[in-house]
Amino acid sequence: MPTLLRRSVLLTGTMLLLRAQAVKAEATPSTVTRDPSYPFTLPPLPYAFDGNEPCVDAQTMELHHDKHHAAYITNLNAAVKDSGQVAAMPLSVMLAKLNELPESIRAAVRNNGGGHAYHSMFWVVMGGTGGNPQGEVATAIARDLGGFAQLKSDFNRGGATRFGSGWTNVLVDANGALSLDTRPNQDSPLMDGRRVLFGNDVWEHAYYLRYQNRRPDYLAAWWNVVNWPVIEKRYQAAKAGMLGV
Ligand code: MN
Questions:
Q1: Average pLDDT over the chain, rounded to whole?
Q2: What residues make up the domain containing 153?
Q3: For a FRET experiment, which of 10, 164, 219, 235 has its CA 20 to 30 Å from that of 135?
Q4: Prediction pTM value
């Protein structure tokens, strides 16, 4: 083979390899979109405990992450460790197949697996600077949820009127369509095979130290730390079928 041609073939091969690696890197779930599996571990916060001050105080953040989230993980590991088939499932599958799991561990997986899924999402969609939604998700909010002002109003009302403990969520389907959702306790939309684009925790442990009984004030302030660039990444991942929990 003439030298020039050989060089050209080598170069083309190298470029294809580099492109394949780039695609693989994009397709690998990041901390933003991962689907964890056993043994479950506490994901590090992507910011310092005071990273969402003054909306979320540092003490609440530390207790919420290091104690509450950690406890869900400890209890989830304990529940599935002796059930090999269950322990082999990624968390999203565990929750989607909840009704097929041994009855003896079903409630523990529902509560602690749901808790782990929710909080893994929750930390990454905060730490931002709020403002208006960006990118394709902004278009989807306008199309499906009546615009950002309407979304905030409906999402906050869902959280404020959730009796006791639970979550207020925006769900995303594989076509990128958005819908609102609110659930009690740690009940996860993943139990219905659905995906949470982002959600807010309305358990008292999420806000009581700073806001006491004023849950609506917490819900209103929370939008100031929403991380729209991360939400856009989760939105793109959902459309590609790559959003874990
Ligand atoms: Mn919580």
A1: 91
A2: 54-245
A3: 219
A4: 0.88
